[in-house]
Amino acid sequence: MKNVMTWLKSNIVVVASVVVMIASLVGLYMVASRKRAFNDLLSQRIAKVNEIDGLRNTAVTIDPASEEGQPVRLSMTINEPTIEKRKLANEKIEASAARVIDLIHDINRRGHVPMTKGLFPKPADSGALHLSKVEYRRLLREMLQPFEPGASGPRLDAGEPPAKEVIDRTLEEAEKGFLAGMGIDVTKKVSDKDLSSKEFEQLLQRKRERLVRLLRNRAESIHVYAKSNIDLKGFPFEVGAWSAAAAIPDIKTVWEGQMELWIQQDLARAIAMTNRVRDPASNVITAPVKEILGAKVIDGILRGWVGFNSEGGLSSKYKLKQQQNPFGMFPGMMPGMMPGMGYPGMYPGMGYPGMEGMPGMPGTQAKKKKKKKVKKGEVKPDFKLSTTGRNSNDYYDVHHAELKVLVDSARLPELIENIQRVNLMTVLDVTLSDIDEYSKLREGYFYGDDDVVEATLIIETVWLRDWLDKLMPKEVKEKRKIAQTTGR
User: Taking burial as the number of CB atoms within 10 A of a residue's CB, which of 103, 176, 253, 474 is the most buried?
Assistant: First the structure.
């Protein structure tokens, strides 16, 4: 033991080195162990951070609102607050959509009341059917009457120009007054010798002034020109022959008349809005629509029972007309709307599809799209039927009408805009033609200084089944193969 201690003392440097080496090895081991523990902890924390970051930036794909749209891809945090916010947002969207749908129903139903009580869907007795003829004609005539607050139907305050007898009497009175002022006996026949050429020209000028005053006064007393006798040619609204027949009509015929009446009442409302019939200061001279030449349901669409066999398409007559009229409205577009704009989430097929899918548009034939499977309850647009692609289905019926008017060419857009505001209507086509205003003036029509043209409008009108089927007679549903339970 003494020898060992002696060696240690004599080799103190070596001993110190050995001790340092041993301590270093122990220290290195401890450091390595702690490093491993630290690395493990760091890896765990990085994994947690990545997990949190993954939750915070989760890739979410939102389906498009319409078939033409593209999916939207977003990165967001998925947690309880986010889920709750999304739930609330969905509830707001659903509530907003429900309000919009209710508004559409209100617009579509507004003012569309059966012509007599107890008539639809099943008449109480044959007396109700007979009374419908009387009421039908009364309501058609009333549309031309002066505006009356609280009236059940539209009023246009329409009238005809002065009758020929009134014009002749006015001119005769003007002539007598002129001659009496010159001291000429008006009880005797006046010859050319009684008046100088200057006096004769003055007489003509006096008669022209009185005539213009007469015509102007008449134009200022009404809001639009229209023939008023329902039994004569030229009455502006289509009158069903069944209403003048001696036989009592069946319920199917009366339903056809009711639909035609509603469609024409909608057109009358649009004209009344355009001409500001409520405003006493407005009149033919200041109004856009000068004269109503005719309103009717288009042949080939509703003829032979309104909508019984209608698919919502235009007849070949009107398709040809549209193809030959490149200066009409853009097909299927409401004024102020761009192609592709519609009402996502509303009734299927009621949107305004983009132009790229329409027949004859550039690129349509080059691209061959796969036919998409139609989902249950989905309505596919069919552009072979009409330019909007809308057609009658389980959700709504599509009908068409023609309106022909004389209108101030610069203010025609006002009429088009009001047509779409009244109901679910779209102007599909507009054809314009010049008129002989001097010839119309000789007939007693005074339009003022506006440039007046004849406009023929083709109009699509949509009728929602939800409320219409409740009124539709059983016989009509059977012919159209509509389920008796349709409607809400």
Answer: 253
Specify whether the CB–CB gap between 464 and 347 falls below 8 A: yes
Q: Which value, to the nearest 10 degrees, does the dihedral of the CA atoms of residues 216, 222, 224, 226 take?
A: -100
Instruction: Please state the pTM of the whole predicted model.
Output: 0.73
pLDDT value of residue 313: 53
Tokens of 122: 């099943």
Question: Contact at 8 Å (CB) between 145 and 260?
Answer: no
Place of tokens 């008023």: 228
Distance CA 487, CA 481 (A): 14
Q: Cβ neighbours of residue 76 under 8 Å, at least 6 residues apart?
A: 57, 58, 60, 82
Examine the pLDDT at 423 and tell me if it is beyond 80: yes
Please compute the mean of the pLDDT values over residues 407-418 and round it to a whole number: 97
- Picking from 297, 296, 290, the residue whose alpha carbon sits closest to that of residue 271 is 290
Output the CA angle 122-126-129, nearest 5 degrees: 70
Adjacent-strand bridge partners of 396:
464
* The one-letter amino acid at 446: F
Distance CA 480, CA 331 (A): 28
Measure the CA–CA gap between 177 and 210, rounded to whole angstroms.
Answer: 11
> Tokens 């507004």 map to which residue?
110
The alpha carbon torsion through 218, 412, 227, 109 (nearest 10 deg) reads -120
- Where does 40-92 show beta strands of DSSP type E? 58-62, 72-76
CB 83 within 8 A of CB 434: no
Cα(75)–Cα(132) distance, rounded to whole angstroms? 63
- Other Cβ atoms less than 10 A from the Cβ of 98: the count is 11
Q: What are phi and psi of 382, to 5 degrees?
A: -125, 100
Query: For the segment 149-179, what is each residue's pLDDT rounded down to a tens digit?
Result: 888 899 999 999 999 999 999 999 998 898 8
Q: Indicate whether 253 pLDDT > 90.
A: yes
Residue with tokens 């407005």: 282
CA distance linking residue 220 with residue 283, whole number of Å: 5
- Over residues 338-394, the pLDDT tens digits come to 333 333 334 444 443 333 333 333 444 444 555 555 555 677 888 877 788 888 888
Rounded Cα distance, 155 and 313, in Å? 31
- Give the C-alpha separation, 314 to 410, whole Å: 28
Give me the pLDDT at residue 197, please: 85
Determine the 3-state secondary structure of 59 from DSSP.
strand
Q: Helix, strand, or coil here: 338?
A: coil
**Cβ count near 468 (within 10 Å):** 20
Which pairing describes strands 158-159 and 425-434: parallel, antiparallel, or unpaired?
Answer: unpaired
Largest CA distance in the chain: 179
Cα–Cα distance for residue pair 406/236, rounded to 1 Å: 12
Strand partners, 455: 405, 432
